[in-house]
From TrEMBL:
Residues 15-169 form the FAD synthetase domain. The keyword Amino-acid biosynthesis does not apply. Keywords: ATP-binding, FAD, Flavoprotein, FMN, Kinase, Nucleotide-binding, Nucleotidyltransferase, Transferase. GO terms for biological process: FAD biosynthetic process; FMN biosynthetic process; riboflavin biosynthetic process. This is FAD synthase. Pathway: Cofactor biosynthesis; FAD biosynthesis; FAD from FMN: step 1/1. It catalyses: FMN + ATP + H(+) = FAD + diphosphate. Belongs to the RibF family. It comes from the Bacteria. It comes from Halobacillus halophilus (strain ATCC 35676 / DSM 2266 / JCM 20832 / KCTC 3685 / LMG 17431 / NBRC 102448 / NCIMB 2269) (Sporosarcina halophila). SUPFAM superfamilies: Nucleotidylyl transferase.
């Protein structure tokens, strides 16, 4: 997979060198089961049409630029983690667009002309709630009008599990309330952070990208993994504003070397005497900020 960074206005050289593709659209934070359905739908179309499979995401969440609702600056999958998942799903080209105030001002028709047609899309796939262009005035009902027949369109319907819409918002809610054991139902796997494990014996330091979305403060059962090693342990989160480093105390195994490419898997919230048998069921972030 190749990754191409795009800033607005999109460079003509990028447009001229873009191969014909099926383009999957979305921010894709978490690349959860609903996102995977979009990618797999686009992949099948690309295979049937003999085209490249491309995905387009943004370097920043639009909420960090558009002053509306909560601002998202921490991610279930930071860009590097997201890119690895895309590659595993068979994406050939990942377009990463810098979401700026200037891009937010681009009208929906212009966005289609410059970005979707400009990247040589022959078919576009997105979720039913995808929006684009100034003030989100472009949506999946408007897209056939803006496309002017220049590319095919597939809208992926709402994906539900356990009578809940699978979404990044749902995953953030579960993580921010300590219910990490429920995440696999919607993500397809446990919540994980990529990073580096260092130390010897029962205690290790796990370093990671500080832009990861942190679970609510408390004690957790976790698994430290690499290609050659796997061990369960416990770690304590004292603040969601982590500098990108956690201490893990292993239950039985010992760490025998440092691992540059490791993963920290969040398994369960541990209720213990220090937490007064509390399982966090509410988002404690606002409480923490007020203390």
């Amino acid at each position: 997979m190749i990754t191409i960074a795009i800033t607005h206005p999109i460079a003509p050289s990028i447009q001229e060198n873009s191969p014909s593709c099926v383009l999957a659209l979305g921010f894709f934070d978490g690349v959860h089961l609903g996102h995977q359905k979009i990618i797999r739908t686009a992949k099948k179309i690309a295979k049937d049409k003999g085209l490249k499979l491309a995905a387009m995401t943004f370097a920043q969440h639009p909420s960090s630029v558009i002053p509306k609702g909560p601002t998202i600056t921490r991610f279930i999958t930071p860009l590097s983690a997201k890119a690895k998942i895309f590659e595993q799903l068979g994406v050939d080209i990942l377009y990463v667009v810098d979401f700026t105030k200037e891009l937010a001002q681009v009208p929906h028709q212009q966005f289609v002309d410059q970005y979707l047609c400009g990247l040589n899309s022959k078919h576009v796939v997105a979720g039913f709630d995808y929006k684009y262009g100034f003030k989100g005035k472009g949506d999946m009902n408007q897209l056939p009008v803006d496309s002017k027949g220049r590319f095919g369109i597939t809208t992926v319907s709402k994906f539900e599990k356990h009578e809940q819409k699978v979404s990044s918002t749902l995953l953030r809610t579960l993580i921010s309330t300590g219910r990490v054991e429920e995440v696999p139902h919607y993500l397809g796997k446990s919540y994980e952070m990529a990073g580096k494990a260092e130390g010897k014996g029962k205690t290790c330091t796990f370093s990671f990208d500080p832009s990861y979305y942190m679970p609510v403060p408390g004690h957790y059962e976790v698994t430290v993994k690499s290609d050659l090693y796997q061990a369960k342990g416990m770690c304590e989160i004292k603040s969601i504003y982590s500098p990108g480093e956690l201490t893990v105390t292993l239950f039985e195994d010992t760490l025998y070397q440092d691992f540059e490419n490791a993963t920290l898997q969040w398994n369960n919230f541990i209720a213990d005497f220090e937490m007064d048998i509390l399982h966090a069921q509410g988002d404690l972030r606002e409480l923490e900020m007020s203390m």
